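Why do we bother with holo predictions? Because pocket geometry can differ from the apo form. Keep that in mind while you read this record for zinc ion.
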Amino acid sequence: MQFDLLIKGGRLIDPASGLDAQRDLAIVDGRIAAIDAEIPFERAARVIDATGSIVAPGLIDLHSHVYWGGTSLGVDADRLAAKSGTTTFIDAGSAGAGNFLGFRRHVIERSKVRILAYVNISFAGIFGFSQTVAVGECSDLRLCEPRETVAAAREHADVVVGVKVRSGRHAGGTSGIAPVDLALEAADKAGLPLMAHIDEPPPGRSEVLPRLRKGDILTHCFRPFPNAPVFASGAVRPDMRLARERGVIFDIGHGMGSFDFEVAKAMLSEGLAPDVISSDVHLYCVDGPAFDILVCMSKLLALGMPLVEVLRAATQRPAEAIARPDLGRLAIGVVGDVAVLRLRPGHFTFVDSVGASLVAEQRLVSAGIVVGGTWWPNEAVDDLGETERFEAHAHDTHVEVASRHFGHSHY
Ligand SMILES: [Zn+2]
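The structure, written out:
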């Protein structure tokens, strides 16, 4: 067989199968066609030299905001993809039933990178979010309409992976737990998982967690006080253990204000590693503190999570959470989505959502990605410094024309 693309000489790590060895990987017609110790150069139209690199499944960012231009918080997924090793962005409820079609037509269908989405229980999606405007989409319950949500999920079933709800003082005002119950009813009717965001109470995590079913997702799982998953002593709150036993998925969702190193240390030390590492990247955290999924993964690596588990939490686990076994792994016949990563040694300072820092001697960088069989290099990989401080920079408004590549669409 003649291959379209051959990735040669890399350390192939596929958490789903447990493979961690030097392997060549070949792709034909957008699917993985061969994984072998040695595949000759002559058999491929294009060869990527991955010597010294990690060849992993394309990263899946389970919590991102990429409704660029249609919502104030959206970032351009195509601009972020190769740089962050991300081949699938899952938008976490930027759009609701009322504006999902625009998201689909103007962003999802025109993006080079793969985009899937949770549909927000709020009809308007996340419509009032900036550094100066904060009107939570669940603060008026008239917007939380399960019938509309189910109809949108069915109409866009090829790209919708679940229902999203944001409850809490910021996102839900005085609505309390009601948005969560409405979203659960919609998720049940649509036969989809729920991703539940928590922020400052009410509702507290102890009201939200017992409602979540096996396969539902708690995002912002390592958030700081108040509503942190650990007591001040560092002991894990019992409802977190019960939820883990029941099969609720713990997702990082770093974002602007939702990741605390001390909380993460406490959770990891008690054996409660996150199931999924996601960035919650949006316009107000893409310049820090979250940056992208790769920076978030580097933070968990620095906190002591083993490399293979860090990769699993950004490939196999999110693929399972969205029930897409054709993504998030490297096996014959699955979608040809690959991340070519490097462990860059140096001196790096990471900063969390409460301003605490953590020094690390290595971080993950992306040399490029393969989306549906097409190689997409990170042009900047060799310019990355060996000393860097990952803290939030003052946000400068990005007024830029999104890079658009017509004629590509991957679901
Ligand atoms: Zn979010």
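The two ends are 27 Å apart (CA to CA).
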